[in-house]
Amino acid sequence: MNLRLKVAIGSIGVGLVVLALKYAAYRLTGSVALYSDALETVVNVASSIAALIAIWFASKPADSNHPYGHDKAEYFAAVLVGVMIALAAVSIFQAAWRGYLSDQSIIYSPLGLGINAFAAIINGTWAYVLLRVGKSSRSPVLVADGKHLLTDVITSIGVLLGVGLVVLTGWNRLDSILAAVVGLNVLWTGWQIVKESISGLMDEAASEDVQDQIRQLISNHGNGALEAHDLRSRIAGRVTFIDFHLVVPADMTVNTAHDICDRIEQAIGNSIPGAHVTIHVEPDHKAKHSGIVVL
Fold first, then answer.
1. Rounded-to-integer distance, Cα 130 and Cα 153, Å
2. Domain Cation efflux protein transmembrane: where (predicted)?
3. Contact predicate 34/25, CB 8 Å
């Protein structure tokens, strides 16, 4: 079992523990804001399950129906996570509105607040793990899950401070207002995750820094070629697809041109994990005298 799958399974377990803690905190205090915080954790668990399924599917090798692999499945899961987050925000708004109308008082419970704070610490630690593993393995769904948890931590801190203010001021409706603020924060997080995931589904190009690195690698390792042009790239989960045209002397043998291509592909693969390189070799009369000049 690879590391991404292990972390995805761990996320489900962590989410269930945190959900139980936050619900206990809500029961001890009766706070609508703490209830909204617990409700967001339900989405955490659901999104972790979606992430696990997506990572399992994305890990399958390429086949005849999917010759470029299954990595984009993670983007679909990330979009689903964003949609579920938005639905959680709607539920939070409903709870906040009911609490505001009822003007229900909350119970000051140091144990309840302490339990919620402990849950936030667990979430913060696991968010760090998700972001670190997600970025190192280039897993968009783990990164999305990590960002969501990080937002959850910030939300929990704000809720705890707000509940403290409710106790100090006696203004019960502040609890519902805080819940609504939590909902807005959750909604914003969902939108950001959906936006980033759609960029991946739309074959977004590699960053300018990565493209500059590719150009430099072609220039440094393309000895014997004349130039390279029409460089294109697109990212699909862990894989970066790269293709370009390589101009060589018209009298160069196929073997020599092939050796140059192998050298470039190896250099790019060593520097950019998950790179999938396609090179179209052209004779010198196809040169555009622009693009990448081979050193």
1. 14
2. 11-202
3. yes
Based on the fold, state whether residues 104 and 170 are members of the same structural domain.
yes
The span from the CA of 238 to the CA of 139, in Å, is 6
Same domain, 65 and 196: yes
Whether this model's pTM surpasses 0.70 = no
If asked whether residues 92 and 191 sit together in one domain, one would say yes
Report which of 215, 213, 209, 211 is spatially closest to residue 292, judged by C-alpha positions.
215
Same domain assignment for residues 109 and 127 = yes
Rounded to an integer, what is the distance from CA 150 to the centroid of its chain? 12
Boundary residue ending a domain (180, 201, 222):
201
| Residue 151 · residue 186 · CB < 8 Å | yes
Cα distance between residue 193 and residue 150, in whole Å: 13
pLDDT tens per residue across span 40-86: 787 778 778 877 887 787 777 777 777 767 777 777 777 777 777 77
Structure tokens at 60: 């399958």
CB count in 10 Å sphere of residue 177: 17
The amino acid at 176: S
CA 168, 169, 170, 174 torsion-angle sign: negative
240 and 222 belong to one structural domain: yes
Domain boundary among 175, 201, 227: 201
The per-residue pLDDT for 237 is: 67
Domain count, the chain: 2
Domain of residue 279: give its range: 208-293
Helix or strand run (H / E) with residue 277: strand 275-283
Same domain, 119 and 185: yes
Taking each helix axis as running N to C, give the angle between helix 3-29 and helix 110-136, from 0 to 180 degrees, rounded to the nearest 10.
160
